């Protein structure tokens, strides 16, 4: 059977989609090679959320197109994911080197696409056969299989004026509890200790079911069904933060007291132009309420700097908010006008250098706030999920206050990869923490 290579660009949701394609192809009998230069078919799973991501995807496609065995016609390129979903037929003329384009919505057919390209008999796996929507950590470089992403829904109905995702991923639809729980069971069976629930809009889970349900119910049910597993949720819009969710989070030790709430801005006019709601006052009230209900909560957010029409005053309000709200972690992006979005057509577009310098200003204030928030953890005791060792043998892991890939790690002096140990935080260096192991959880009981 031919060998394949799979290159993934973009977010954790794309990692999950790649993992699902990989599993379908594995089930069909195909094997994978790390080096695309040795593959008969190279699948590039693309991202085009913003211009920078699109350029990265284009570079990846052109890089494999340059490979000698592709030039000689001995290997085929499949472009998958968000770019085919967003640009459709246009890509045929842009990338004559590619043999097939598979949008996100058609990735279930990846086995037929590949076997047709290779002129091989398509193995038995019919399209629509259910394949786990999970990305084991081994799909994520550098982390042992102790943590995984599980997608709980796809698509988005919010139509933020700067965002392309609704055009790429379509309408919001929750995945059934049974399928999600089956994924988690497979994770736990494979040794996973931490499951991060992801989607474009996690807080909306269950609202589209005939019998409406909620993210709070989902997380509570999973945490009860898998008591030894940590559960974390990312990408909750402010409207998704309910008292039900906060009480479920506060009452389950295996639900990380961690909330990733993208706010994007705090100026009411800017938020309206983003087709979003809120204000600095409303968000500060929300944060105070969250901290009241879940005192040890860790908060992450994301902002866009330099949105069209952002006055000096509106920007100053954003900076003041970042200082006052004291988020533990902050992501910030300079506004990127995406073709086909309303925001790209708005008047008062700011010069690139202004957008970049404002994003840097937010970055600087956020870094100062975050490192003092993290330093505030010195002297506290926390469970650490040991993940692995660096080349020099230094063990590292993450606490429940550190999300995968974005929040830094905790260096620790004992434990085995995949083990959860209790540890005292003895020092912090910017976003990293240092801890001394106290005991393996379960030793003291
Ligand atoms: S909620 Fe997120 S995914 Fe949905 S439209 Fe807004 S930015 Fe895009």
What is this structure's SSE topology?
Elements (H helix, E strand, L loop, with lengths): L2 E6 L3 H16 L3 E2 L8 E6 L4 H15 L2 H4 L4 E6 H6 L2 H5 L5 E4 L6 H9 L15 E3 L10 E5 L1 E2 L10 H5 L3 E2 L2 H13 L4 E5 L16 H11 L4 E4 L9 H9 L6 E3 L7 H6 L6 H14 L4 E8 L6 H14 L3 E6 L7 H4 L6 H24 L5 E9 L5 E5 L10 E3 L7 E10 L2 E9 L5
The structure holds iron/sulfur cluster (SF4).
Describe the model.
- This protein is 35% helix and 22% strand.
- Helix 9 (215-225) packs parallel to helix 10 (243-251).
- It has a five-stranded parallel beta sheet with strand order 2-1-3-4-5, sandwiched between helices. Strands 15-16-17-19-18 form a five-stranded mixed beta barrel.
- The protein is of the alpha/beta class.
- Residues 125-143 have low confidence and may be disordered.
- The longest helix is centred in the C-terminal third of the chain and has 24 residues, at 352-375.
- Bound molecules: iron/sulfur cluster (SF4).
- Iron/sulfur cluster binds next to helix 7.
């Amino acid at each position: 059977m031919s060998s394949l290579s799979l290159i993934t660009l973009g977010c954790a949701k794309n990692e999950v989609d790649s993992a699902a394609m990989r599993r379908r192809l594995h089930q069909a009998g195909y094997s994978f090679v790390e080096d695309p230069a040795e593959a008969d078919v190279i699948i590039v799973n693309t991202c085009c959320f913003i211009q920078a991501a699109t350029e990265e995807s284009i570079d990846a496609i052109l890089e494999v197109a340059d490979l000698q065995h592709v030039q000689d016609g001995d290997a085929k390129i499949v472009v998958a994911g968000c770019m085919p979903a967003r640009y459709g037929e246009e890509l045929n003329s842009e990338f004559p080197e590619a043999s097939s384009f598979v949008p996100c919505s058609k990735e279930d057919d990846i086995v037929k696409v590949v076997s047709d390209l290779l002129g091989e008999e398509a193995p038995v796996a019919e399209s629509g056969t259910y394949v786990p929507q999970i990305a084991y950590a081994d799909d994520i470089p550098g982390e042992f299989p102790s943590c995984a992403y599980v997608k709980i829904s796809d698509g988005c109905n919010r139509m933020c004026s700067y965002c392309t995702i609704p055009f790429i991923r379509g309408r919001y639809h929750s995945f059934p509890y049974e399928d999600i729980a089956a994924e988690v069971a497979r994770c736990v069976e494979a040794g996973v200790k931490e499951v991060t629930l992801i989607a474009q809009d996690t807080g909306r889970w269950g609202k589209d079911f005939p019998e409406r349900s909620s993210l709070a119910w989902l997380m509570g049910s999973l945490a009860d069904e898998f008591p030894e597993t940590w559960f974390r949720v990312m990408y909750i819009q402010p409207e998704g933060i309910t008292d039900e969710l906060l009480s479920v989070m506060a009452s389950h030790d295996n639900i990380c007291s961690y909330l990733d709430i993208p706010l994007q801005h705090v100026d009411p006019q800017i938020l309206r132009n983003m087709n979003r709601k809120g204000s600095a006052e409303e968000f500060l009230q929300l944060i105070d309420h969250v901290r009241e209900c879940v005192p040890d909560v860790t908060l992450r957010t994301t902002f866009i700097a330099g949105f069209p029409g952002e006055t000096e005053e509106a920007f100053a309000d954003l900076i003041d908010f970042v200082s006052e709200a004291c988020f533990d972690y902050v992501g910030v992006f300079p506004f990127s006008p995406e073709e086909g979005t309303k925001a790209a057509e708005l008047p008062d577009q700011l010069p690139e250098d202004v957008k970049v310098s404002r994003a840097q200003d937010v970055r600087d204030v956020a870094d100062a706030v975050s490192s003092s928030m993290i330093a505030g953890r010195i002297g506290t005791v926390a469970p650490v999920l040991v993940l692995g060792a660096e080349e020099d043998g230094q063990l590292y892991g993450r606490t429940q206050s550190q999300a995968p890939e974005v929040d830094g790690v905790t260096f620790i002096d004992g434990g085995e990869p995949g083990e959860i140990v209790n540890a005292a935080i003895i020092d912090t260096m910017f976003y990293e923490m240092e801890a001394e192991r106290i005991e393996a959880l379960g030793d003291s009981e």
